[in-house]
Amino acid sequence: MTDKEFDLLDELYFIRSYQYLSKTLDVNDEDLKLTLEGLLKRGWINYYISPMEEIEFDIRDFEKEYRNYHYLATKAGLLAHNS
Length: 83
Hints:
Blueprint: H1 3-11, E1 16-17, H2 18-24, H3 29-42, E2 45-50, E3 53-54, H4 59-65, E4 70-73, H5 75-82
Antiparallel strand pairs: 1-4, 2-3, 2-4
């Protein structure tokens, strides 16, 4: 796990908007997008249209809409973060 992935998972114990993550973490937009995408592919995070509506992972949707989503660590992501 990279430092960026660790820091991002550290923020995702609670559901967080992309805007929150962008302001809180010291990474540029492209790095944040790539880190989120990598964690999604590993199943370590889920993403939501709103804080209450989870959606299925579809890379095509993510590529266009990632700034509009909310993110939360999965059980697997939390275990990886704490190992």
